[in-house]
């Protein structure tokens, strides 16, 4: 079929083309089918959407993901990628071979799978899991799909938390501690997708986080460390595409977690990695047994990849810091680096840094590096190298001007501070899009409280979002207050 192509200004994650419904019927194409497009001796493949309004009959609208295709074209039906058959096999609980997984990863990387097929892949992994062999093959394929950074130093340290805990902002504290000891630690971090802040969002309060690979290398050569946004350096880019399919389903399969984390570490050139696995009722991993199983799976796959790895299992039933949201978490980071700050955040940062020192066979003490001011000095060096103000102080970082204080409705004991609800309140307030939005906690589990004591403060940059956050909080119980006797029974 001969059509006339034109570009359409619609951002799509896949190479989408839009056909008039009548032309699609004549061609035998349905939504999410694929068509081949030939123009000037080149062939393109697009994923079909149909319409009766956006495109006239005889026309073809092409989104930017496909490339610049305009003018007369010839179109025909295209077959499904072979990887779709592998996904179907995994849905039927068959174990996939190395080549099968490589084809799936290649097609995800090249945007050859539509959203339904990508969702089916994620569902198959969630339902049937991945064997150790499959996880290893997946990690290797995801690593090969992006850039790979090589370093001249023998020891390259790294750290990752599997997430799910609010205010767990230890990375901007650990990186300068480790770098101050002379250990190279090039940290790539994510922005928030479903949380009130990712590490990159918090670091962006201080400085730039989007850099090319060469710029990242220059920063690390100058300071021993960095905290940059992983999306800007093309390390294991397939991971970001898979995450896009996981989020609507609210799934995060263990095998995919391992492949995601280790592929990014391998791509970044890291060879000594500490993995933080928080567990708790409201965390991503809900039980100690599951945390131990995940840690063992990490170890087995890392061994095949020649990665030195240490997994720490930490309590994640409640937020770690006091601040939740980019600016509020940044204030906690500076406070800890300056010798104070939330005790749980300080202690966890010290513990993880010391374990990483042991893994790297480095004679250093994290608490001494914090208390001496060496870590703070190194943090300011990194901020300056990433284009920020090295002299920034905690009081310079101001949360949103609209606020609401949530108080206890009765005397009692704080039974739970629920990560999920606290995080959602912060998101409704505007975090992370509005950096000053979020929550500051005034209590922790097991605290005794009296009626009208402050439990937490909600901050927002816009009054309408503050109202939305307060309305949501009124529907849930983010901080649960119980009787002292009830608390005593639970502790037992």
TrEMBL record:
<dbReference type="InterPro" id="IPR013466">
    <property type="entry name" value="Thymidine/AMP_Pase"/>
</dbReference>
<dbReference type="InterPro" id="IPR036320">
    <property type="entry name" value="Glycosyl_Trfase_fam3_N_dom_sf"/>
</dbReference>
<keyword id="KW-0328">Glycosyltransferase</keyword>
<keyword id="KW-0808">Transferase</keyword>
<dbReference type="InterPro" id="IPR000312">
    <property type="entry name" value="Glycosyl_Trfase_fam3"/>
</dbReference>
<dbReference type="Pfam" id="PF07831">
    <property type="entry name" value="PYNP_C"/>
</dbReference>
<dbReference type="InterPro" id="IPR013102">
    <property type="entry name" value="PYNP_C"/>
</dbReference>
<feature type="domain" description="Pyrimidine nucleoside phosphorylase C-terminal">
    <location>
        <begin position="413"/>
        <end position="480"/>
    </location>
</feature>
<dbReference type="InterPro" id="IPR035902">
    <property type="entry name" value="Nuc_phospho_transferase"/>
</dbReference>
<dbReference type="GO" id="GO:0016763">
    <property type="term" value="F:pentosyltransferase activity"/>
</dbReference>
<dbReference type="Pfam" id="PF02885">
    <property type="entry name" value="Glycos_trans_3N"/>
</dbReference>
<dbReference type="InterPro" id="IPR000053">
    <property type="entry name" value="Thymidine/pyrmidine_PPase"/>
</dbReference>
<dbReference type="InterPro" id="IPR017459">
    <property type="entry name" value="Glycosyl_Trfase_fam3_N_dom"/>
</dbReference>
<dbReference type="InterPro" id="IPR017713">
    <property type="entry name" value="AMP_phosphorylase"/>
</dbReference>
<dbReference type="InterPro" id="IPR036566">
    <property type="entry name" value="PYNP-like_C_sf"/>
</dbReference>
<dbReference type="Pfam" id="PF00591">
    <property type="entry name" value="Glycos_transf_3"/>
</dbReference>
<protein>
    <recommendedName>
        <fullName>AMP phosphorylase</fullName>
        <ecNumber>2.4.2.57</ecNumber>
    </recommendedName>
</protein>
């Amino acid at each position: 079929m001969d059509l006339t192509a034109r570009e359409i200004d619609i951002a799509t994650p896949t190479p989408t083309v839009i056909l008039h419904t009548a032309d699609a019927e004549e061609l035998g194409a349905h939504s999410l089918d694929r068509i081949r497009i030939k123009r000037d001796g080149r062939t393109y493949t697009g994923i079909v959407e149909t319409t009766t309004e956006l495109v006239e009959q005889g026309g073809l609208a092409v989104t930017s993901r496909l490339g610049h295709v305009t003018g007369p074209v010839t179109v025909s039906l295209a077959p499904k990628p072979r990887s779709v058959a592998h996904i179907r096999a995994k849905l039927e609980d068959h174990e996939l071979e190395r080549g099968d997984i490589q084809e799936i990863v290649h097609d995800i990387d090249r945007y050859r799978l539509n959203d339904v097929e990508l969702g089916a892949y994620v569902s198959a992994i969630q339902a049937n899991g991945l064997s150790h062999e499959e996880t290893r093959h997946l990690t290797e394929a995801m690593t090969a799909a992006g850039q790979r950074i090589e370093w001249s130093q023998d020891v390259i340290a790294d750290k990752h938390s599997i997430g799910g805990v609010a205010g767990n902002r230890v990375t901007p504290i650990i990186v300068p501690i480790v770098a101050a000891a002379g250990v190279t630690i090039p940290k790539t971090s994510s922005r928030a997708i479903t949380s009130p802040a990712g590490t990159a969002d918090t670091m962006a309060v201080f400085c730039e986080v989007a850099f090319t690979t060469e710029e990242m290398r220059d920063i690390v050569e100058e300071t021993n460390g960095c905290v940059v946004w992983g999306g800007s350096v093309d390390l294991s880019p397939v991971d970001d595409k898979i995450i896009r399919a996981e989020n609507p389903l609210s799934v995060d399969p263990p095998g995919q977690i391992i492949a995601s984390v280790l592929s990014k570490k391998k791509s970044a050139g890291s060879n000594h990695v500490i993995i933080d696995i928080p567990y708790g009722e409201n965390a991503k991993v809900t039980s100690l047994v599951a945390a131990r199983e995940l840690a063992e799976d990490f170890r087995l796959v890392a061994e095949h990849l020649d990665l030195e790895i240490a997994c720490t299992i930490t309590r994640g039933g409640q937020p770690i810091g006091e601040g939740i949201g980019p600016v509020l978490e940044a204030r906690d980071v500076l406070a800890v680096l300056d010798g104070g700050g939330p005790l749980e955040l300080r202690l966890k940062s010290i513990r993880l840094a010391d374990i990483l020192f042991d893994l790297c066979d480095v004679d250093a003490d994290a608490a001494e590096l914090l208390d001496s001011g060496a870590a703070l000095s190194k943090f300011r060096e990194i901020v300056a190298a990433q284009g920020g103000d090295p002299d920034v102080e905690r009081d310079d970082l101001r949360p949103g001007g609209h606020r609401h204080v949530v108080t206890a409705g009765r005397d009692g004991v704080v039974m739970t501070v629920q990560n999920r609800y606290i995080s959602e309140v912060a998101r409704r307030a505007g975090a992370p899009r509005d950096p000053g939005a979020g929550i500051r906690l005034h209590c922790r589990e097991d605290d005794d409280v009296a009626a009208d004591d402050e439990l937490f403060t909600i901050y927002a940059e816009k009054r309408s979002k503050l109202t939305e956050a307060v309305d949501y909080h009124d529907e849930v119980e983010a901080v649960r207050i119980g009787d002292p006797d009830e608390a005593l029974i639970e502790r037992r």
